[in-house]
Structure formats: C-alpha cells, structure tokens
Specification:
The complex is a heterodimer. By secondary structure, chain A is an alpha/beta fold. In chain A, about 45% of the residues lie in helices and about 15% in strands. The relative contact order of chain A is 0.18. The chains are: A alpha/beta, B alpha+beta.
Chain lengths: ~150, ~750
C-alpha cells in the first residue's frame, strides 16, 4: 500500500488547483488534505480528531508556508524535532520568494521549496514533478532520512 | 660671547631698570619736606629749602614744621582734611612762612601720605602764567562737547585744543599706543614755528617700561625746565624705611637725566605729560611741549588732570561702545553661519552657502573650509595646495586650537610659498583628529610708517642708553604684515568653533535617528513586499489556473470570441504576475547587501547571449562584443544590469535586418564605462529623463512588451555601486545605454 501524500493548504482555490495538478500527475497515492497547521499536527501526532487513524507516516508532506493557527514553519520545526516524524520529506509550497522564509525553512531542514508559479501549466509541472520525486522515487537526500530508512528495514 | 646684537636690548633693559620712583632729588621750582606723621617733625628736606626757609636742610631736621610757619596757621587742622582713600598730593592751602624766613609770599602747599611718612611740597603760588584765572568754564565746555565727538580722533583733537588753552604750551599732542608700545600721534595743536608730529610714530623704546607703569598710577608729570639743577634730599634715606624716599606721587619728583637729554634733543625745554588710562591700561598720552621753560601752576595742573580723566572715561565709553557693536556684529555673523549650517547637510555646505558672511565675520579677504574629504576655498586665498600644506602643518602642532598670525613669513617659516599669497592667517580646528579646520586669510597690507626720527637708539660709552638725537621724519615701508587679527575676532572664532561642534554633534544625532527611521521603514517595506508577493500572486495564480482549466474543460463550448476573451484573461494574469515578480526583485535590489568580487564582463555577456537566444531565434544579429575589462562589483546584480540592457537591445532592434548590437567599454581615470548600443528604434532625447524611472515606458504595449521596471532596476543597481547611468538615442537611429563603475568601491 502506497503511503499517502499529505497536503496542508488553507486557501480553497490553491487547494483545488493543487489537487487538479496532483490528479494530472497520475500518482496513485491517496491525498490527505488538511486545512491548517493545527490540524496537520493533530494528524501527524495522531491526536484529537485523528487519534484513531491508521499509523504510518505520509510519503511526502506538501506544506503551505502561511497557514492559520500554526504556520508552516512551525509545523516543519515540530516535524524535524519529533523523532518519529523526522524522516517525513517536507516540501514547502508558497507564494513568497522572500529570503528570510527560504533561509528559515532550510535551517529547519526542509527538503524542497517551491514558489508556486503564476502560470498554471508551470504549476502543474512543478506539482507533479514533486509528487513523482517524493512519492514515487522517494529518493531521500543524505542525512537523517537515510538513518530512518535503515530504521525501516 | 659677542653681545653686539643684543647690546641695544641690554641698554634698553638697563634704562628700564633706572629707579625713577626714587631719584633722591626734586625739581627746584619748589621745596619738599618729609614729616613724621605724629609730631610733624622734619625727617628729610630738599637741600634747596634754605632758599625759602633760610636754614640749611641739615639744620631743619628734627624741627617741627608748625614752628616754621607763620603764627596762626593750624597745620594739624589743615592736614586733617587729607582724603584718606587717596594717595595723590592734596592742596591743603596757601600758607605763609614764619616772619624770619626769606620768602614772605604765600606758598601753595601740597601734602600726601606715602612710604610711611608725610610728604609736603611747597611751590610759589603767585607764579601765574596762564591767562585764564578760572578753569571751570573751560573744563565744563570740554565736558559738554565730548559727547558730540564723532570718533576717537575728534575727541583727542578737542582735548589737546583745550589743554593748550589752559596751559599755553607751544605744542600739545595726543598719541595712542599700539600693542607693541609704538605711539602714534593722532591729534595735535601747535603754535607757529613748532614742528608738527601729527601722524608720526614714536618707537615704544622712547618710554621705558617702568615709566609706563608710573604713568599708569600717577597721571600727570611736569618738567618746567629741562636744564634744571636737581635739589637732593637730605638725608639720602627715608629714616622710617631705611630706603630712598618713594616719590611716585610727588609733583616735584626729579626725572631721569636720559629723559632731560631727550627733551633737549627734541628742542623742548618744558613738558607736561597727562596719562590716558583706559581699562586700567596706558592707552596713550597727552604730551605738552614748550621751547622755553614754562611753569604750570597747581590750578592748571588740576584742570588738565580733570580733563585727562574725562577724556579717559569718554575713550573708555567709546571703545566699549565700539567693541560692543563689533561683538554684536560678530554674533550676528555667527548666528547667520550657524543658521546656514543647520539648513544644509554639512558644515561645509552651510558655510559655502553664505561666502560673504564667512569673510565678513573675520574681516578676511579669503577663507578655507577643510574637512576630511574636501577643501573649499572662498574669496582670495592661497592655492589649494598651499592651503593643504598649511593644514598639514597645523595638524602637526599640538594643543592650541586657534592659530593667528599677522605675519606668515615670520611665524610660519616652513611655508615660505604661503607668505607669497597671504600675510595673515587665522585658523581654528573644529576637530584635529578629523582634520577639520576653518581658516581665514588676510592680504598683506604694505604700509608706510612715518617715524618721528630714526627709531634706533644709541648706546653710550658705559653701555647706557643715549636718547636719540634725530626727530626728523623718517619713513619706513613695513612689508609682510596683514592687518592684525582683532582680539574679539579671535575670541569669536573660538565661539564659532564651539557652536559648530554643537551642530556637528546634532547632525550626527540626526543621522543616527535617520538611520533608525530608515531601518524601520526598510523593515516595513520588507513586510509590505512580502505581503504583496504572497497576497497578490495568489489571486493572479488562481485567475491564470482557472481560466486555463476553463479553456481546457469547456473550451469547445465557447464561441471564438469567448475563447479569445479567455486568452486575454490568461495573458493579463501572467503579465500581472511578472509585474509583481519584477517589482519584488526591484525592491530587493535596494535592500540586499552587495557581494563584491571581480567580475568577468565578457563571460557575463556570453552567458546572457545564450540565455536570450530563444528571443532572437530566426533573426540576424551582428554582435560586436569588445574585449571588456574586469570590474569589481556584485556579479549577480551586474548580470541583471547587462541582461536588461542586452534584452532591451534585442527587443528594440527586432525590426532591423540585420540588427547590430555592440557591447564595449571605456577606461577612465577613476571609473570604467560600459555601454550597450543597438541600431533599433531609438528614442526621443526629450524623454531621456523618463527612461530610468519605474513604470516609465516610451512605447505602446502592442509595439514592445515590458513592465517598465528594467531600466529602473539598472539605475538602482548602478547607483548602489556609486556609478552613473545615462542613455543616448534618436528616433529610428538606435540607442546606447551607458553605465560606469568606480575603480574604488566604498566598502558597502
């Protein structure tokens, strides 16, 4: 069974367009949609509404930078500091090119960072590339991920 | 050791050592007795007393004076009138001697207490020589006119005229002393036959130092006959002190034989000097001369003394008034300069904005404002190189903040060239560490001094000073001097310095505050850019996404028109997206730090040509890329600049076949100029100022696409490198865009 793709996005339009893009990339993974950072944490830590979900981490988490309640960088930080979550590949999705965010996200150990392009075709390409790379090839970069893969074996 | 060069100085010093207060003798027109305070017995007597009293001086000693006076004279009662707070001789009355004395005329008796004894002087009272019996109207007339005198010289002229009337001296002149002690005759009244000294100068050495001091405390001195035979005091010493009697205040005091010789050399037999004392200093003298011996009786002396006092007071008032006005003017200039400095970005700019005030303030012909980066000159100054040499010299001195000289050649020997241009220098260090100076210059004032005779004195065989013989006018040309710097100006300069320091400090504070505000607004701008990028891009993305989806899914149900509209929506959204991206880049350019390194411009141009190749596919472009120099700049930013310029050249030459694009460079002394030239549509130079503005476009959208930010970015980047940008072009004739990069970049 393929691990699901976790999509954390608050904006309904971006959400719909991203889902269309993922659909077009013809990935077989299930896409789990979460609408804010708090929800995402609940899901990941299997608490509150997600206390009863099946265990296991997602194949990749597509995480919007700006989220209500708990923002993307905070979610990322918690993922990277929680031992059982640390291995989840995280891709930041954002509208912003602003340097401090980029810097911060890299400091916190993001795996990739994508500025959502305005042009839809580019957007589709970017999303499906990401999906294929992280959900299918799932070739982790050097570092903590390799350790965790060893742990999975 | 040869003492030749200094023997004159030594002689002058010896002259200044002469004990003029204790000559041990008197002038013989009267006689002098020294009395004991308590019993009025005679302690000392002048040897000519015998002439009046009929007894030798030696025989008088020990006798009580009252016994020598006519009966009925109560000497004690008269002495009781002596003012307690004054040391000057007091006229206690006209007294007669005892009946056996050879002199039976009443004698004018002056007494004063000094040197622990009572000094009593007797002089004939009937020797009236003046034609005026009552001086009060003369003195009153003078006092009432002094207020009307327009200036110092007019005032002095009135005074000498009145004094001449009172005393009947053949020549009365008034002179003032300058800082060196040189006296210059400013007013004169004379009888026919007397040589005039008006306008002439008397060397300071004519009046030795101790004589000047005595002039200050005893303000009148009379010599009735230069050929007088002094009458010695018997005994020689004052028994109360064991020292010669101090006759500083005695009217009959004998004078130096050198001075008597001086008088005779000058052809004058009688003289009277009145001191003009202003602010406790000997300002000048009224000097009266007569060719024949001449007596000046007590009343005339008193009137003249009074007159001289009024004159002194009036001069003091005039000078105080002048200096107050001068001070007010100085203050005003300072205030104007400070206001200008406050209005401008720097002290230099402020002072330069009001060049005439800067000069008037110090009554200077030229001025220089030196700061770490620049040297600005105002008016007539030495050339900048000389001024810099002066500043260097000033920097090596330590301590003194203010330097002033009215003779550069004499006082700044190491800079002889400076003296060729200016004779006077007044400099103040605003900051010595930062080499920040204000300097004023005065031109040489070659002037002619008419000396009343050659100033040199002659030394006698014993090394004593012989008074000069020549009083013939002798003309001297004085070179290398400027007008001396007025003490008030020198003080004003210090005041100006302190005020400037205050302004500099305030400016620094303002700058710091500005920097803080800038930091804050930069932060705000960052936040703003962030939200623009984030919040504006999202809806644009949605428009683009949904219109594309709509076209894909429902496109076949739409009319051709509907499809066209949908296409426009997509295009518009994309354009708006790139506009937002460009704006963001532009704002980042102003904020991010420059990362400077050596940049290979040829490599950049080559890369840009490859990158933009798709844009000119199918066109013929003749590239003329010269060998470009390496520059020191931020490579990413310079790449952006070249990319913009080359992309523009490609875009605006697309109607040309072949298009020609030239990239070249020119090396200047301080900077490298790089240009990109094309043979495209060009532009009208009338709009050249608009080219580099944000959102400024010179072409319609259908003609040439673009967001209008490219050249604004170019300018911003180049300006951050302290370079310049400009463009040249003609409609239909192509355009060239130039930028420069300084060889030495600030450590930005």
């Amino acid at each position: 069974m393929l691990k699901p793709i976790l999509l954390v996005e608050d904006n309904p339009r971006d959400l719909e367009l991203t889902l269309v893009a993922l659909e077009r990339s013809q990935l077989a993974n299930e896409v789990i949609v979460l609408r804010d950072g708090a929800d995402a944490l609940d899901y990941l830590l299997r608490r509150n509404a997600y206390a009863d979900r099946d265990d296991g981490n997602p194949a990749v988490m597509l995480l919007d930078l700006k989220l209500p309640k708990v923002d993307g960088l905070e979610v990322l930080k918690l993922v990277r500091t929680t031992p059982e979550l640390r291995s989840i590949p995280v891709v930041m999705l954002t509208s912003s090119r602003e340097e401090p965010d980029l810097q911060r996200a890299y400091e916190l150990g993001v795996n990739a960072y994508v500025v959502k392009p305005v042009e839809f075709k580019e957007f589709v390409t970017a999303i499906s590339d990401l999906g294929v790379f992280w959900a299918v090839l799932n070739e982790p970069p050097p570092g903590s991920l390799r350790l965790s893969r060893r742990g999975n074996q | 050791m040869s003492n030749a060069p200094t023997s004159l100085e030594q002689a002058i010093e010896r002259c200044a050592q002469e004990p003029i207060r204790i000559p041990g003798s008197i002038q013989p027109q009267g006689f002098l007795l020294v009395l004991d305070h308590s019993d009025l017995s005679i302690l000392q007597a002048s040897e000519n007393s015998q002439q009046w009293l009929g007894q030798p001086a030696q025989a008088l000693l020990g006798q009580a004076l009252p016994a020598l006076l006519a009966e009925g004279v109560n000497l004690r009662e008269l002495l009781a009138n002596l003012p307690e707070d004054e040391v000057f001789p007091f006229h206690i009355g006209d007294l007669q001697l005892h009946p056996q004395a050879p002199c039976q005329e009443p004698l004018r008796v002056l007494a004063h207490a000094h040197d622990q004894v009572l000094i009593v002087e007797f002089e004939p009272s009937a020797r009236r020589v003046s034609q005026h019996s009552d001086y009060y109207p003369l003195v009153r007339a003078f006092v009432s006119t002094v207020h009307q005198a327009k200036g110092i010289e007019e005032l002095l002229q009135q005074a000498v005229r009145q004094i001449k009337r009172i005393t009947g001296f053949g020549r009365v002149k008034a002179y003032s002393f300058d800082a060196d002690g040189t006296g210059k005759v400013l007013a004169e009244a004379l009888d026919p036959g007397y040589p005039s000294y008006l306008g002439q100068s008397f060397p300071g050495s004519d009046i030795p130092r101790q004589a000047r001091e005595l002039y200050c405390i005893n303000r009148i001195r009379v010599i009735e006959d230069a050929d007088y035979q002094p009458a010695a005091l018997v005994p020689e010493l004052n028994p109360r002190t064991g020292q010669p009697l101090d006759m500083s205040f005695a009217t009959l005091r004998s004078v130096s034989p050198v001075h008597l010789q001086y008088m005779r050399n000058m052809g004058t037999q009688a003289s009277m000097s009145l001191s003009i004392v202003v602010d406790g200093k000997l300002w000048g003298l009224v000097s009266c001369h007569h060719e024949q011996p001449r007596a000046v009786d007590f009343q005339s002396r008193t009137a003249c003394e009074l007159l001289a006092n009024v004159l002194s007071l009036q001069l003091e008032a005039l000078e105080a008034h002048d200096s107050t006005r001068f001070l007010l003017d100085l203050r005003q200039y300072i205030v104007r300069m400070l206001a200008a400095m406050a209005d401008h970005d720097s002290v230099s700019d402020g002072l330069l904005a009001q060049p005439e005030v800067m000069l008037q303030f110090a009554r200077a012909s030229g001025a220089a404002i030196i700061s770490a980066e620049r040297c600005d000159l105002i008016g007539h100054t030495p050339p900048a190189a000389q001024v810099n040499a002066l500043v260097h010299w000033l920097g090596q001195r330590s301590g003194e903040l203010v330097l002033h000289t009215d003779n550069v050649r004499r006082d700044i020997e190491v800079l002889p060239e400076l003296a060729e241009h200016s004779a006077g220098v007044l400099a103040v260090a605003i900051s010595q560490i930062h080499s920040h100076y204000l300097v004023w210059f005065r031109d040489e004032q070659a002037r002619t001094v008419d000396w009343a005779g050659r100033p040199e004195k002659h030394i006698g065989p014993q090394g004593t000073l012989n008074p000069r013989h020549s009083f013939e006018r002798w003309r001297e040309e004085v070179r290398d001097f400027s007008a001396p710097w007025e003490p008030l100006i020198i003080e004003g300069v210090t005041e100006l310095r302190n005020a400037v320091l205050g302004i500099v400090l305030r400016k620094a504070e303002e700058l710091a505050q500005l920097a803080n505000e800038l930091k804050r607004s930069n932060k705000e701008l960052e936040a703003f850019s962030y939200s623009v990028s984030h919040d504006l891009r999202a809806p644009l993305r949605h428009i683009a996404g949904y219109s594309e989806l709509l076209n894909e899914l429902e496109g076949e149900h739409l009319t051709e028109r509907g499809k066209r509209f949908l296409g426009h929506i997509e295009e518009a959204a994309q354009f708006a997206g790139s506009l937002v991206d460009n704006l963001l880049n532009f704002s980042q350019m102003g904020r991010s730090a420059l990362r400077l390194s050596d940049v290979d411009l040829n490599a950049l141009v080559e890369a840009i040509r490859n990158e933009t190749a798709p844009d000119y596919a199918g066109r013929t472009i003749i590239w003329e890329v010269a060998q470009l120099p390496k520059v020191y700049a931020d490579p990413a930013f310079i790449n952006m600049v070249l990319h913009n310029l080359i992309a523009n050249a490609i875009k605006y030459s697309r109607d040309r076949d072949p298009a020609r694009i030239e990239v070249g460079a020119v090396q200047h002394a301080d900077e490298t100029e790089v240009y990109v030239r094309d043979n495209g549509v060009g532009f009208d130079m009338a709009y050249v100022d608009k080219l580099f503005g944000v959102f400024q476009r010179l072409h319609r959208m259908e003609e040439f696409e673009g967001t209008g930010i490219g050249l604004a970015s170019v300018r911003r980047i180049i300006e951050r490198h302290d370079g310049r940008v400009w463009a040249e072009g003609r409609v239909g004739q192509g355009a060239s865009f130039h930028f420069t990069l300084p060889h030495q970049l600030p450590t930005a």
